[in-house]
Amino acid sequence: MLMQLCDILRGHGARWGYLKRMAEFHGGAEALTMRRLAAMLRHAGRTVPFYRDRIPPSFAEEDAYHILHGLPLVSRRDINGARESFVSSEPGQHVRETPTGGTSGVPLWVLQDKDYVDWGAAGRHLFFSWLGWRPGDQILRVWGDHAALRRERASLRDRLAARVCRVRTVNGLLLSEENLREYIAVLHRVRAQFLEGYVHGLHRIALEMLKSGIRPPSSLRAVISTAGNLTPDIEDDLRRAFGVVIANRYGCREAADIAASCPEGRLHVNPFTHYVEILDDRGRLAPKGEGRIVLTLLTNRTMPLIRYDIGDVGDLKERTVCPCGRDWQTFRRVHGREASLLYRADGTIIDPVLFFPFMRILFRLLPVERYQVVQEDYHRFTFRAVLKDGATAEGPETDRGLDEIRQAVRMELGDDVEIAFDFPEEIPFAPSGKYFYALSKVAPPQS
Ligand SMILES: [Zn+2]
Question: Residue 185's pLDDT band (boundaries 50, 70, 90)?
Answer without folding.
Answer: very high
